[in-house]
Amino acid sequence: MGLEYNMQLIMSGVLNCTQLAGVMTSLWTMDRIGRRPLLLWGSLVMFLSHLVISVLVGKFSYDWQSHRPEGWASVASLLIFMLAFGASWVSS
Questions:
Q1: pTM value?
Q2: Cα dihedral angle (47, 42, 76, 17), rounded to 10 degrees?
Q3: What is the DSSP string of 43-64?
């Protein structure tokens, strides 16, 4: 997505911390909301974030250097995906 090597390493750690934050939230939400609604909402958020990523990568992957905001938008969508995945599917 157009990130330099050092930023790729940093974002790898940020991605793992984001998933950890999602898993931590499930400690409280699973008992209050229940597994089924948590899985359904998590699936919806993961679908939407994957949809955004696929559209952005499909349109701009040929030249990320000229499309920096779109690259960062796809990175943000990936972080949202990992947060939703950690909060819903990992803990169930």
A1: 0.92
A2: -140
A3: HHHHHHHHHHHHHHHHHHTT-G
